[in-house]
Amino acid sequence: MAHDNKMLGVLLINGEHVTLAGTIDPQIKHFCYEKAYLESMKGTALSLSLPLTNRPYEEPEFKPYFEGLLPEGEARHALAAQLGAREEDYLTLLCGILDCIGDIAVVELPEGEKNWEDLLSLAHYEPISLSDISCSLTSSERVAQASLASRLSLTGTQHKLGLARMFDDKKTLTWLRPLDGAASTHILKAGQITRIPELEMLALSAARSCGIKVASAELIELQPGNIAICVERFDRQISKDANKKLTVLRRHQEDFSQALRLSSGSKYAELEPSSAKVIAELLKQHSARPLDDIRMFAHIALFNYLIGNCDNHLKNFSLIHEGKWVRLSPAYDLVPTAIFPRFSREMGMNIGTHRNIDEINSRDFSLFANELSISPNLLRKLAKKMIHTLPSAIMVEAYKQEALGFETLSYDAEDLVDDLQTRLHVLESFVEG
Asked: Could you count the other beta carbons within 10 Å of the beta carbon of residue 252?
């Protein structure tokens, strides 16, 4: 193991300020919050699954949260290969990272006193060209290599690259590669399958038109015919200091799998008595505005159904920590998977009694509302607006993107609108009662 059973420090990074929140003993497999962190008025739990306490957490309790910071599948395999570590050795993999989702980092504890701000002393940015970005996104191995140079981990299975960008006084855009732990501000995703970036862009924009708060995004042509989607990280706050130097504050976040103490491999599991009910209870207990967040979760669920996003699993919903409370994050990874015959028709979580997107009926939406502890009439109101807004919003975004030079998006939009018609009729039946 790369950390040789040394004690590991769990750090929270905010700008240039670094706090030791806890330690992991990899030998006896314990995680403990630091006494000074517990006594701090600003100390907040790393996860809803790891409440503040002076007792040690055993590995089955803390592993889902920490392992959930790593990529999955082929991306994790490539990261392990780059580090020369075993794929299942999640702590060694984490020790190579300084820019995770949120504001957390796991490092080997040094001997004696440590000024944690020194950890970021080498952090810096260097310009990167679109052709180099394109090259870095061509394979999982290249993504892992680039991510290690940045000491970056992005969860999920897609080819993703974390970058930063700045506009100078002449509004000229410069792409920057974060190095040695500098914070990324944007995520670029290339489509391993043709049309994925374009369809995700259409979905994100349409969701915004339907009243859903979403991550800001745009399409980027890296090379002729090679299109990526660029998504602004909502767990980052970007500014420039007096010397026009890029400064990035990190916001603490976790996904539903982490908050519910579930492994990434269980992200598609249907929870008991239902995922919808468990999520609603979680938001009731921990959200600063539970009714607003439950309503928004319902809104996103309706949108995922209509758009045909069957990849709406527990890791594709996140919580932003605000002190001792949380808020539902903006929606992200809204990909219309149902338009592709090769993808599963099983959704990431049930709506009512059904999971297969083709079997969901109007009664399922009434059951879904009850599970969320909201009235069916409220869900009908959300659905009615979406029915009238979504198809035209998709086409409007397509024409907007074509004006920006992405010439084939109207064809994608037409295919998408055609694909959702059957589901539109199901939702209309629910609205009509």
From this structure: 23
Cα 98 to Cα 104: distance, rounded to the nearest angstrom:
8
| Concatenated DSSP letters of 334-400 | ---GGGSTTS-SEEEEEETTEEETTT--HHHHHHHHHHTTS-HHHHHHHHHHHHHHHHHHHHHHHHH
Range list of β-strands (E), 186-303:
186-190, 217-223, 226-232, 236-240, 246-250, 253-255
Cα 108 to its chain centre, rounded Å, is: 26
Distance CA 29, CA 3 (A): 13
Spatial strand order in the sheet of 160-167: 124-127, 173-179, 160-167, 186-190, 226-232, 217-223
Closest CA to 159 of 184, 179, 141, 178: 141
Distance in angstroms (rounded) separating the CA atoms of residues 198 and 138: 17
Cβ atoms of 358 and 263 within 8 Å: the answer is no
Helix axes 73-83, 140-150, angle to 10 degrees: 60
Burial class from Cβ neighbours inside 10 Å (0-12, 13-18, 19+) for residue 59 reads middle
Digit-by-digit pLDDT tens for the chain (433 residues) are 445 668 999 999 987 789 999 999 999 999 999 999 999 867 789 999 999 999 999 999 999 999 999 988 887 888 888 888 899 999 999 987 888 888 999 999 877 666 777 878 888 899 999 988 888 887 767 766 766 666 666 665 567 888 998 876 667 788 999 988 888 999 998 866 778 999 999 999 999 999 999 999 999 998 888 899 999 999 998 876 666 667 788 999 999 999 999 999 999 999 999 999 999 999 999 999 999 999 999 999 999 999 999 999 999 999 999 988 999 999 999 999 999 998 999 999 999 999 999 999 999 999 999 999 999 999 999 999 999 999 999 999 999 999 999 988 999 999 999 999 999 999 999 999 8
Contact present, 182 and 16 (Cβ < 8 Å): no
The predicted model scores a pTM of 0.92
Q: Name residue, tokens 């600003």.
A: 42
Q: How does strand 124-127 pair with strand 57-58?
A: unpaired
Phi/psi at 37 (nearest 5 deg)?
Answer: -70, -40
Cβ-contact 163, 374 below 8 angstroms: no
| C-alpha distance from residue 113 to each of 7, 9, 120 (Å) | 14, 13, 16
Region label for 308, one of left (φ > 0), alpha (ψ between -120 and 50) or beta (otherwise): left
